[in-house]
Design brief:
This protein has about 500 residues and is α/β, with parallel strands linked by helices. It has 3 domains: about 5-40 and about 60-80 and about 225-300 and about 435-490, FAD/NAD(P)-binding domain (3-Layer(bba) Sandwich); about 105-210, no CATH class; about 305-425, Guanine Nucleotide Dissociation Inhibitor, domain 2. Helices cover about 35% and strands about 20% of the residues. The protein is built from 16 helices and 19 strands. The chain has helices at about 10-20, 60-70, 100-115, 115-140, 150-160, 170-175, 180-190, 205-215, 225-235, 280-285, 295, 330-340, 385-400, 420-425, 440-445, 470-490; strands at about 5, 25-30, 40-45, 50, 80, 85-90, 95-100, 220, 240-245, 250-255, 255-265, 265-270, 270-275, 305-310, 320-325, 350-355, 365-375, 410-415, 455-460. The chain has a 7-stranded mixed sheet with strand order 7-6-15-16-17-14-18. A 5-stranded parallel sheet has the order 9-2-1-13-19, with helices on one face. Strand 1, helix 1 (about 10-20) and strand 2 form a beta-alpha-beta unit. Helix 1 (about 10-20) packs parallel to helix 9 (about 225-235). The radius of gyration is 22 Å and the shape is globular.
């Protein structure tokens, strides 16, 4: 029986552990923190519960796939489809509720923004076709193995090349499609799902909008943390061993092969290592003497975030589960983020109110808010001042939009920021998704899911191919499984 050590228990690490255990490997997961799930975890502040990390959940079928792989009842993971994709609040006072579903979205954009329904429908259908052409060959499979390029699916995907918008930015594609700048803003927002700028990332990334508008988001019953809890339980049922509060300090190797790992407590022999740790830190901290892929690791980092967790002593009927408060100057905000300036004046504010879904997350008549603000990575800014200033800006902006004294409504609070993201979740400089996608060839500059120089070393999670977000992290595990099968003839 082959022995596998998984470094990190984020979604990509847990899914990799499940898949390799099903291959018949003896799998052990090593986690530096005292909890599993990485960014997908929870915290209680008094009587308020908060999901600490991702707040949008798409493609729940990927979780169902893992459950079915393990022969379990799909009812062990419950979720519901949301009727709304998001509620948008614009600086001029307009508020728009965008429903989930292609036809519903078309009607909404016509009524709210005056868009031609035929053009909107064609665009959303194009995004659906683009996604389904790309997903099997570029999202669910490796870009870095010749065998992957020798199948009919690749040719079908390449046949749609003129429709992807590769030579224009996401914003340029959207401006050319829609007449109302607000519609462009709504579509441009999708770049934040992998920590990129819509003014730099290629139009190809508009496929994210397919998941948001055509499919619509879902919400796990019990909150986002149920994703981690479900994957953890599947691991336990398969006999995967967990070593919490045990930091991996080195990946041991000799003769171009993995030999094992050295943790803060012991040396562990194994033939396979899957690093769910940020790929930058994997090389910097764990691979002594290994040549690192400098061109890949020197790519521009994705954005970070400042997140406030507020327990509110009242309810807000005008808010839904997902809410976006747009900045006055959206483009200037992204420039400030990717030029890593020390501050910006009017941030986009993403408010996620889970108590609208889970009553037990807050006392009756109250709400728990997840307030996320896009932020630069940590390059030595005065984050104490930055967080304080951002908090004031958020409260002023939301108070104005909701016509309430927001400060007086906050009962309990905590916050997260790039320094904590780096120290707790091991994201290089507080980057959430590793490298950004701010170029037409970013996908090809993502680190592959396997080491080209060290047999037995694999990579999963949001900092490697295929990229950031829960669905892509789950797909990274699927690619790891496929690579292990090929390399070890399992």
């Amino acid at each position: 029986m082959m022995k596998v050590a998984v470094i990190g228990s984020g979604v990509g690490g847990l899914a990799s552990a499940i898949r390799l255990a099903k291959l018949g490997c003896k799998v052990s997961v090593f986690e530096a923190n005292d909890f599993v799930g990485g960014k997908v975890n929870e915290q209680w502040l008094g009587k308020y519960r908060f999901d600490m990390g991702p707040s949008v959940f798409t493609e729940p079928a990927l979780i169902d796939e893992l459950i079915e792989l393990c022969g379990k009842d799909l009812r062990m993971f419950s979720y519901r489809r949301l009727e709304e994709s998001c509620r948008y609040f614009f600086d001029d006072g307009q508020q728009v509720i965008v429903p989930a579903g292609l036809e519903q979205t078309v009607v909404c954009f016509e009524k709210a923004f005056g868009e031609d329904p035929k053009r909107t429908r064609r665009f959303l259908k194009r995004l659906s076709k683009n996604y389904h052409a790309l997903s099997p060959v570029f999202i669910q499979a490796s870009l870095h193995r010749l065998k992957q390029w020798l199948n009919k699916g690749v040719f079908r995907a390449l046949a749609r090349l003129p429709y992807y918008g590769m030579i224009r930015t996401m914003s340029a594609v959207n401006q050319g499609r829609f007449k109302n700048p607000k519609t462009t803003q709504v579509f441009n927002r999708m770049a934040t799902y992998n920590g990129s700028s819509p003014y730099r990332t290629p139009g190809l990334l508009n496929i994210i909008s397919h998941l948001e508008f055509n499919d619509g988001p879902a919400m796990p019953i019990g909150g986002m943390v149920q994703i981690s809890k479900t994957l953890h339980q599947l691991c336990l049922d398969l006999g995967v061993e967990f070593h919490l509060s045990e930091r991996v300090e080195e990946i041991l190797h000799a003769n171009n092969k993995v030999q094992g790992i050295r943790t803060s407590q012991k040396v562990v022999d194994c033939e396979i290592v899957v690093s769910n740790m940020d790929v930058h830190f994997t090389y910097e901290r764990l691979l002594n003497g290994m040549h690192e892929p400098k061109k890949i690791l020197r790519q521009e980092k994705s954005s970070s975030a400042i997140v406030f967790y507020w327990g509110m002593n009242t309810t807000f009927p005008e808010l839904g589960v997902h809410n976006i408060f747009f900045a006055k100057d959206y483009e200037a905000e992204f420039e400030s983020i990717f030029q890593t300036k020390t501050r910006y004046e009017d941030p986009t504010i993403y408010v996620h109110i889970t108590s609208k879904v889970e009553k037990g997350d807050a006392p009756d008549g109250m709400e728990n808010w997840f307030v996320m603000v896009n932020a630069p990575i940590n390059v030595g800014q005065n984050w104490d001042e930055f967080v304080s200033e951002t908090r004031r800006t958020c409260i002023a902006k939301l108070s104005k939009a909701l016509h309430i004294d927001l400060e007086s409504c906050i009962q309990v609070e905590a916050h997260n920021e790039p320094r904590k993201i780096e120290s707790v979740y091991f994201g290089k400089q507080g980057s959430i998704y590793g490298n950004s996608s701010n170029s037409a060839f970013s996908a090809f500059y993502r680190h592959p899911n396997f080491s080209k120089s060290l047999k037995g070393l694999y990579f999963a999670g949001v900092t490697v191919h295929p990229g950031g977000g829960i669905p892509l992290a789950l797909n990274s595990a699927k690619i790891v499984e496929r690579c292990v099968r090929e390399d070890f003839k399992l």
